[in-house]
Design goal:
This protein has 210 residues and is mainly alpha-helical. The protein is built from seven helices and no strands.
Length: 210
């Protein structure tokens, strides 16, 4: 349970939070609210908390930030499979409790006895376990596929951004000025301030000296 100090701090934070202020932000928040409301209406059954489903959907949307209809549909599937997993986990616990409650009080090995009893009276425990495993597999597949699609999209966006600006920036400002570019041929020209070397003397014909 929250302390009085925490309650006071939460109230202060709520008063300072005004939500989105821009037109785009308000429109996005409105769509999110509508979408969460649709989740609550279409997926909630008796005994389930719609607020908890809205929190689950909001956390997934904040993490994945889907772009486009394909990513939106995959995220809807992920949320639905995650909610189904929670539902079947709760159902499994309730079935065990219901079967155990109908067994004699002095029954040894209650869990084993409950499974054996249920196997001959509808086999609800095994059926629920299979549906839980199926929801788990579907959740993994949808999550993996969404990750792959978003990775491909982000790579394509990065490549498109790089293609729009193919020219690299100059290393320094002087490199961008044509007059300051250095040619390799310039290194072959002697500096005007360098001392002049004397011209080499012509070879002497030793035969003329004899």
């Amino acid at each position: 349970m929250a302390t009085s100090a925490q309650v006071t701090a939460n109230r202060a934070n709520a008063q300072s939070s005004t939500g989105p202020r821009s037109v785009q932000g308000k429109a996005a928040a409105s769509r999110n609210s509508l979408k969460l409301g649709l989740y609550a209406k279409s997926m909630i059954i008796a005994g389930e908390d719609p607020v908890e489903l809205e929190r689950l959907a909001a956390s997934y949307r904040a993490q994945f930030e889907p772009v486009g209809p394909i990513e939106e549909e995959l995220l809807d599937d992920i949320i639905r499979f995650a909610w189904m997993k929670r539902r079947f986990q709760t159902l499994e616990t309730e079935i065990f409790g219901s079967v155990i409650a109908n067994l004699p009080e002095d029954t040894p090995y209650l869990l084993g006895a409950a499974v054996i009893y249920d196997a001959t009276h509808g086999d609800s425990i095994n059926k629920t376990a299979r549906r839980l495993a199926a929801a788990q597999r579907d959740w993994y597949k949808a999550t993996d596929l969404l990750h792959r699609i978003q990775l491909i999209r982000r790579r394509a966006e990065a490549e498109a951004e790089a293609y729009e600006d193919p020219d690299p920036e100059p290393l320094c400002e002087s490199d961008a000025e044509p007059g300051n570019r250095v040619r390799f041929a310039d290194f072959d020209q002697p500096s005007p301030d360098a001392p002049q070397r004397p011209a080499p003397e012509p070879p002497v014909n030793l035969a003329l000296r004899l």
